[in-house]
Amino acid sequence: MSRVVILGGGTGGTLMANRLRRRTDPAEVRITVVDQDDRHVYQPGLLFVPFGLMEPGELVRPRHRQLRPGVAFLRSAVDRVALEDRAVHLADGTLLPYDVLVVASGADLRPEETEGLTGPGWGERTFTFYSVEGATALARALGAFDGGRLVVDLVDMPIKCPVAPLEFAFLADWHLTRRGIRRRTEITYVTPLDSAFTKPTCARALSGLLTRKGVRLVTEFNAGEVDGRAGTLTSYDGRTVPFDLLVSVPLHAGAPFVGRSEGLGDELDFVRVDPATLQSRARPEVFAIGDATDVPTSKAGSVAHFQGEVLTENVLRFLDGRPLEPGYDGHANCFIETGHRKALLIDFNYDVEPLPGRFPGPVGPLPLLRESRLNHAGKLAFTWMYWNVLLPGRDMPGIDARMSMAGKRPLAPAGA
Predict the structure, then answer these.
(1) What is the largest CA-CA distance in the chain?
(2) Which residues contact 354 (CB under 8 A, 6 or more apart)?
(3) What is the mean pLDDT of residues 248-254?
(4) What tens digit of pLDDT does each residue of 337-355 get?
(5) Is residue 242 a contact partner of residue 147, using CB atoms and an 8 Å limit?
(6) Is there a contact between 393 and 309 (Cβ–Cβ < 8 Å)?
(7) pTM exceeding the 0.85 threshold for the entire prediction
(8) Which domains does the chain have, with CATH numbers?
């Protein structure tokens, strides 16, 4: 019997386990998912919690209940992976051997890496919405906020859902407008990037939205220190941004056990993989998916979904002794909430930037790179799709792992 061990019961680990279980015989392939807790969080919903648009209880379900029958769930922290021995060392001393290992351990928040961020003021004037606890505390703070300087700071890349900090700024503009205090609030978006986003075409559209909504943009700002008492955010080059309420997107890194597993990860503890096959560069029987990888695309649920289709096939090919399929092209798509019940939609891959057009094809209902109420409805509808289609390992009709150019319009040359 072949033993497949999946480290992580989040989006990538869960959908991989379910896809593999659908296509293998339990008598021939044993699938085990390992995670340190039994708490699966719908992470896209965290953005909505501070604004009262979702409740924390709506976002959390038991991990083991999202797995198909025939998938074993083991609750334990991971100490390290012994690559040469093909075994996982669990924190309680248990040794878990494998024939195939899939690392799906996601990305961890490291707020303590920014001087002062978790010091005085943490949970009072300085917050993050990238966790259930942080989003819940921020909801209370926003409810009591009566105007002043609201700063959204992206400390560094990469992060989970790269557009989420921008979405927060857009939703804050809408939320404060509805409360009647927008005119006495200054919203500032602070980023280490040289523009609002990493993709130039998308950055132009998002920068325009920030300007239209009166959100100040501060670029190339590398946050070095937070003083929660004084209400100041200071960059390494000495620039200072004052705040009354700071919403921080802290440093991200891979799971600590990756760093303790010699040869498995990079300097940020993300797993080094072939970007097309998702096979580890350290060992052929090791693979990774989703936020845990070092692939040069967004760390987003859509990426895990598209990677899952390719990776399922490649794990089966590996078990059968067949060549792997270099089928992942960096495909990612994302709804970007812009407030006032509207959203943008972007679709891109390693080589193609977000383009205007229609999605998922020429007559698709969703406009690309343009605000619409239909895109907002699509983002809300995705919650049901997540629990009932994506996690169970089903394909989404009309949406392929490889990005399609159908319905997309090439950009006119600059100056045309």
Answers:
(1) 66
(2) 199, 201, 202, 346, 347, 348, 368, 369
(3) 97
(4) 999 999 999 999 999 999 9
(5) no
(6) no
(7) yes
(8) 2-109+253-320 (3.50.50.60), 111-251 (3.50.50.60), 333-390 (no CATH)
